[in-house]
Amino acid sequence: MTRRLKLLHVETGQHLYGGAQQVAYLLDGLSAQGVDNHLVCPPGAAIGAHFVGSAVTVHPLRCSGDADIGFIRRLARVLREQQPDLVHLHSRRGADVLGGIAARWAGVPAVLSRRVDNPEPHWWAQRKYRLYARTVCISEGIAEVLRSQGVDDSRIRVVRSAVDAEPWRHSASRDAFCAEFDVPADALIVGVVAQLIERKGHRVLFAALRGLSAARQIALVIFGQGPLREALQAESADLPLRALRFAGFRRDLPRWVGCLDLLVHPALAEGLGVSLLQASAARVPIIASRAGGMPEAVRDGLNGLLVAPGDSAALQAAIGRLADDAALRRSLGAAGSQLIDAEFSTAAMVAGNRAVYDEVLGRG
To answer: What is the pTM of this model?
Structure first.
């Protein structure tokens, strides 16, 4: 009888969104297949609380970041105690290099998930990625960055991020949305779902909106939190909008995204863009940047429009085009929902990662 596959996952994020949510989807799917999953995460992390009482065994382990050299020893100890078949490192912060070294010390093969498309120095990339039996990139755009830096292509695999579409297909009513966020019901409701940080491109959007007439009747709702909130609030005061709301981080986001007329994601760089998948699941048309993995989530003319990153004039034109064409918005939204079912399901993501494990362990 074949021994049940035993995996140890490392996720050092404190909050259950972005990459950590993908880990939760993965562990739920693997557990349903009978995999013995163990999770290392910081004490008090949301993902640890998510799996309390589940089939996943949680190991709280302190990790203070990339300089926490002691994390190598602590993780190696857990690996020796648990003796998993493989360790999957999901986070960059503290978990990638330190986790790879710990796995090597413990004699356990390691797989790394890479979710960002920022380049690293060539000399560093060529050494770092030798720590891992495979590096799983969440988009072809990320994989191409690694290849361009000399990382061995035979160790690179692409498994795209996923979205559980069902919650995003049951939105609140438009009246409920307008009451919740105090926006006029007859406005064109444009949303942004992103951290308030420089690379998400909020300032590019503001520049685009300044070129549009107030007669467009646009209400802009910005979801997310981050260090630029005060600065962005100050810089957006002169925008020719019907309404502007900074809605912060919302745990009930699936309730509201489907009420948007349009999602704009003007990021300057992005590994893939989970918020784009969520919007498509909710049948919302998208305008995004042609950078990183975003063209894999938004197919130009199918479920949205793509513009060059940082090009506020092109973004302005795209917003104007969709603002004036309700039929096109409906068509793009419907196609996005079909795209999610075909290519970005949680089942496909779980199967892709499972195939990588089987390849590394020779279980094919």
So the answer is: 0.85
